[in-house]
Design goal:
The chain contains twelve helices and five strands. The protein is of the alpha/beta class and 243 residues long. It folds into two domains: 60 residues, no CATH class; 180 residues, Rossmann fold (3-Layer(aba) Sandwich), CATH 3.40.50. One of its GO terms (biological process) is DNA replication.
């Protein structure tokens, strides 16, 4: 009977429940009441599905860094408030569809912070995608050429959290400017976007160009956005000096 039950669990793809039930059959396992066994099996299946979902979301996000919230450096002079960052880790701003703007000079940890929040979002079940901004614009232009642009834009719109890293390294051309406007317009008030940039927010207007579109984009991005301006020297330089 147990062999048949295990096989049926396998066919039903109840992988967590199957492993738990198989373990419960070993002589070393603790004795369960009927209620305890059912609870154990259901919890094991729930945990397995939850963990596999997190793995799928994290893989789909395509993060550059394997960043974690616990490794963020709150050292003096970095202008990173631990309490604020821990609030962001609850992902309440994502549930509200609010944006976050992370600025600071090269190497101070902007990308790491954005990625850590992104990993946290995945662990809480939020669909997330990470892009280097220049590479995203290249992909968008390619999608226009092969006819998949609308599908790609639709996919971006559905993400609970979209992370655009290294924004503003060079001015936007007309095509990229309109693509950014479309992305931000589609997500405005519904989904969250994190933008990390070496430039202060005040300089983004010139990077975007064309005053009317720049005003429209920044009005949707900046209004009520959470802002983190990281200070201090390059973390890469500090790590190199320690070696």
């Amino acid at each position: 009977m147990n062999t048949k039950t295990l096989e049926q669990m396998k066919q039903l793809r109840l992988h967590g429940m199957l492993r738990a039930f198989d373990t419960s059959l070993s002589p070393e396992s603790m004795d369960y009441t009927n209620d305890e066994l059912v609870a154990y099996l259901v919890q094991s299946e729930w945990d397995d599905r939850h963990n596999r979902k997190i793995e799928r979301l994290t893989k789909a996000a395509r993060f550059r860094y394997g960043a974690v919230m616990e490794a963020i450096d709150y050292g003096p002079g970095r202008n990173i408030d631990r309490n604020r960052i821990q609030r962001y880790a609850s992902c309440g701003f994502i549930r509200k569809g609010e944006n976050m703007l992370i600025t600071g000079s090269t190497g101070v940890g902007k990308s790491y912070l954005a990625s850590a929040i992104g990993h946290q979002a995945c662990s809480m079940g939020h669909r997330t995608m990470y892009f280097n901004t220049a590479k995203l614009f290249t992909l968008l232009k390619t999608s226009k050429a092969d006819g998949s642009y609308l599908k790609f834009i639709g996919k971006l719109e559905k993400q609970d959290l979209l992370i655009l890293d290294d924004f503003g390294l060079k001015p936007l051309d007309n095509i990229n400017r309109h693509s950014l406007m479309e992305i931000i317009e589609d997500r405005h008030g519904k989904r969250s976007t994190i933008i990390a940039s070496q430039l202060p927010v005040e300089a983004w207007h010139d990077v975007i160009g064309e005053k009317t579109i720049a005003d429209a984009i920044l009005d949707r991005l900046v209004h009520s956005a959470h802002r983190v301006d990281i200070k201090g020297e390059s973390m890469r330089k500090k790590i190199k000096n320690k070696r």
